[in-house]
């Protein structure tokens, strides 16, 4: 049985402008001790879906349906008290900006101690010992002294280390890392990812990493879900998504990050267009306004998330035929422009204006 | 920290000099009346006025008067004598300080007891009936001037002309030492009238601060830790939301200790505010000068205390 299984999760926020479908039918599962990467741009619903797993969207005006099964219990039906017992104890979370995520007026150690004592009946002294131990585990120098420092006295990387220490102090079964490295320097990013990977093994914790950066996902093993407009558009093992991706949006993400093994003159290709509205998403395939391979039919039919023939665990939400997608990716991977690749694969010239 | 405080204290002294000079100038440039004529009786003659002028020292050049005045303050802590009743101004002010202090302290207690809970409930139950009602009333209370609210209160509740006579001694101030019960009764109405707009302002301010704080990332962290909502609000959100309130509270107390002129006048409370009011009416320069200086002193000292307190309230602030 999976540690966490999310089934057809929908999170809709009622706003003055209409209903924002932040998460619209998302399913995924993660086993004990494993990793899952959720990738997408801002507004794809990746953060909202995991905040909902934590029960943190309960505080807003949200309609939540579906199932979040954690160790056999549906968390969406759990009471507030039951959720508090799980939060920070069985499921912990770290966030994007470690400075604003730590309370500026309380000492780092006190913030760790609070999290430990709320879930364990231990003395202040024992909790403090534990906090110092955790700070040592995450690699903060002189933890016995640093435990009494305020967050603003820490560097960015140390703050995120402290957040990780806080999250892992109760040895949770699942750690959700929401853009854990986005606010950090590049050199620190790698250290933090390495730390999360090391502690994942040490504590046997399952980890969900949410990021907009495929480079972050590449650092971990396990499955990857690519989200777009509140839906998963591609899901599969890490290697498959990097080596044989089948969704045009995933291609766009891959082509927009620099690679050391790419030819020197190969240019980075940004994904054109803007992220879709979540109040009235585009008709048909939600990605069609930004897709270089769009056809007439794609603006009318909404594709389902379906497995590909070769690998039942690799799911794609795309109306193109699988052989066509493979042929397109082969040319893109070789460095061809999307328009040229399309022309070659389809064998017909594409004029401007015909694309929609 | 020590250097910072020393620098600020020197600045306070400089400011008080400036305030005294400006008050002197305003009095001579825009006199409310001629103090000598005011005291010459019903049929004054030029010789009498000149003689009074000489007695009061008003025949000397302004800068000489100012220099003498400041010299007496610095050397003897002597604020001169009232033109009106020849009493030492220092004695007048010190005898009225407990009165103004009573008024201020009680009003502060009332407005904190009302304003803070209302602000918290409004922030937590945002857009509820309770929130909308209390914020509407708060707007009313902020807009209502003290002299109007005070007169309405007297009309309704004072023990002579009032419709509902419930406050024994309202309208006639009784010192605390003389009769604590009557002291309390005489100040209850003024406290509430003075506190009304402050309570409303504090409620709105705390509500706004708290709502803003509740959307901070560290509140999300606190919830992610599994803390009960009571603790999330009480310990994490309030700690950040209350800090600016403490600052403003310090300044408001400083201002009120300089005399709540309108409230003291409406309820006839013999505090510093009433002294200043009478001083202005009588063109009584030493009294005006003394009350203005004391008011300024309380305000700048309150400012200083608030700034120092901030370093203790917010660990990120260091001097």
Q: What oligomeric state is this?
A: heterodimer
Structural class of chain B: mainly alpha
Task: Give the % helix of chain B.
Answer: over 70%
Q: How many alpha or pi helices of chain A?
A: 13
Categorize the overall geometry of chain B: globular
Main sheet record of chain B: none
Order of helices and strands of chain A: EEEHEEHEHHHHHEHEHEEHHEEHH
Question: How many individual β-strands of chain A?
Answer: 12
Distance between the termini of chain B: 6 Å
- Please tell me the overall pLDDT of chain B: 89
Structurally, how many domains make up the residues of chain A? 2
Give the spatial strand order of the biggest sheet of chain A: 6-7-8-3-9-10-12-11
Query: SSE order of chain B, as H and E?
Result: HHHHHHHHHHHHHH
> What is the terminal-to-terminal distance of chain A?
44 Å
CATH class of the largest domain in chain A: Alpha Beta
Strand content bin of chain B: under 5%
Q: How would you classify the helix and strand content of chain A by structural class?
A: alpha/beta
Short description:
The complex is a heterodimer of chains A (356) and B (319). Chain A has helices spanning 46-53, 80-86, 98-101, 108-119, 124-137, 143-146, 156-168, 186-203, 214-218, 238-243, 248-255, 322-333, 338-346, and strands at residues 4-15, 18-30, 35-39, 62-70, 73-74, 91-94, 174-178, 206-211, 223-228, 231-237, 306-307, 315-316.
């Amino acid at each position: 049985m999976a540690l966490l299984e999310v089934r057809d999760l929908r999170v809709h926020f009622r706003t003055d402008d209409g209903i924002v479908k932040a998460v619209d039918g998302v399913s995924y599962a993660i086993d004990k001790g494993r990793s899952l990467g959720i990738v997408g741009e801002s507004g794809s619903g990746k953060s909202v879906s995991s905040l909902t797993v934590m029960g943190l969207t309960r505080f807003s005006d949200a309609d939540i349906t579906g199932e979040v099964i954690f160790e056999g219990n549906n968390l969406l039906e759990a009471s507030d008290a039951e959720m508090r017992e799980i939060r920070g104890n069985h499921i912990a979370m770290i966030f994007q900006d470690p400075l604003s995520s730590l309370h500026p007026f309380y000492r780092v150690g006190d913030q760790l101690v609070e999290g430990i004592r709320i879930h364990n009946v231990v003395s202040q002294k024992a909790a403090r010992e534990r906090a110092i131990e955790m700070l040592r585990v995450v690699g903060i120098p002189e933890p016995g002294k640093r435990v009494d420092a305020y967050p603003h006295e820490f560097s960015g990387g140390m703050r995120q280390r402290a957040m990780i220490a806080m999250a892992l102090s109760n040895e949770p079964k699942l750690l959700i890392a929401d853009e854990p490295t986005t606010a950090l320097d590049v050199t620190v990013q790698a250290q933090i990812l390495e730390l999360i990977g090391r502690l994942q093994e040490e504590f046997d914790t399952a980890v969900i990493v949410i990021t907009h950066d495929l480079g972050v996902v590449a650092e971990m093993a396990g499955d990857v879900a690519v989200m777009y407009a509140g839906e998963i558009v591609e899901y599969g093992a890490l290697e498959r998504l990097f080596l044989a991706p089948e969704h045009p949006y995933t291609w766009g993400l891959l082509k927009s990050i620099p690679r050391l093994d790419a030819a020197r003159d190969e240019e980075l290709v940004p994904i054109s267009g803007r992220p879709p509205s979540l109040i009235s998403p585009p008709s048909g395939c939600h990605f069609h306004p930004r897709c270089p391979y769009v056809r007439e039919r794609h603006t009318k039919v909404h594709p389902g998330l379906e497995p590909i023939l070769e690998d039942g665990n690799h799911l794609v939400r795309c109306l193109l035929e699988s052989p066509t997608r493979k042929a397109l990716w082969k040319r893109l991977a070789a460095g061809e422009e999307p328009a040229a690749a399309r022309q070659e694969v389809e064998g017909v010239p594409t004029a401007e204006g015909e694309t929609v | 920290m020590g250097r910072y405080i020393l620098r600020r204290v020197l600045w306070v002294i400089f400011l008080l000099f400036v305030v005294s000079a400006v008050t002197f100038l305003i009095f001579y440039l825009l006199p409310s009346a001629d103090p000598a004529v005011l005291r010459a009786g019903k049929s004054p003659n030029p010789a009498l006025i000149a003689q009074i002028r000489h007695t009061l020292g008003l025949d000397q050049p302004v800068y000489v008067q100012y220099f003498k005045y400041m010299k007496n303050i610095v050397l003897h802590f002597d604020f001169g004598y009232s033109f009106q009743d020849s009493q030492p101004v220092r004695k007048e002010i010190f005898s009225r300080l407990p009165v103004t202090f009573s008024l201020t302290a009680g009003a502060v207690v009332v407005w904190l007891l009302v304003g803070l809970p209302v602000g918290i409930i409004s922030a937590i139950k945002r857009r509820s009936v309770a929130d909308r009602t209390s914020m509407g009333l708060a707007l009313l209370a902020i807009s209502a001037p003290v002299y109007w609210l005070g007169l309405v209160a007297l009309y309704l509740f004072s023990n002579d002309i009032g419709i509902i006579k419930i406050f024994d001694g309202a309208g006639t101030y009784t010192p605390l030492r003389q009769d604590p019960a009557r002291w309390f009764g005489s100040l209850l109405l003024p406290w509430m009238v003075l506190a009304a707009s402050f309570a409303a302002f504090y409620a709105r301010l705390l509500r706004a601060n708290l709502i803003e704080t509740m959307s901070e990332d560290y509140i999300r962290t606190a919830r992610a830790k599994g803390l009960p909502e009571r603790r999330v609000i009480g310990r994490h959100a309030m700690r950040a939301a209350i800090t600016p309130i403490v600052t403003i509270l310090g300044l408001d107390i400083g201002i009120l200790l300089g005399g709540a002129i309108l409230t003291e006048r409406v309820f006839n409370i013999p505090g510093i505010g009433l002294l200043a009011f009478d001083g202005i009416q009588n063109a009584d320069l030493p009294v005006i000068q003394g009350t203005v200086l004391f008011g300024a002193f309380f305000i700048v000292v309150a400012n200083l205390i608030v700034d120092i307190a901030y370093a203790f309230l917010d660990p990120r602030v260091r001097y």
